[in-house]
Amino acid sequence: MAGLSRLVLANFRNISSADIALCCSVNLFYGVNGSGKTSVLEAVHMLATGRSFRSRQHQPVIQADAEQLAVFGRLKDGLTIGVEKRRSGPGGRIRINREAAESSSQLAALLPLQLINSDSFSALEGGPGVRRRLLDWTVFHVEQSYLHALKDYQIALRQRNALLRRGKIGSDQLDIWDGRMVIAAVTLDRLREEVFERLGTVTRELLLDLPVSPLQQVSIRYRRGWKQGVDLGEALQASRDADMAVGHTRVGPHRADMVFTVDSQPAQSILSRGQQKMLVCALRTAMARVVSNSRKPPVFLIDDLPAELDDAHQVIFARWVSDCAGQVLVTGIERESTCRPWLSLAAPWNKPSVFHVEHGRISAELDPAPNNEWSE
Question: What residues does ATP bind to (predicted)?
Answer without folding.
Answer: 31-38
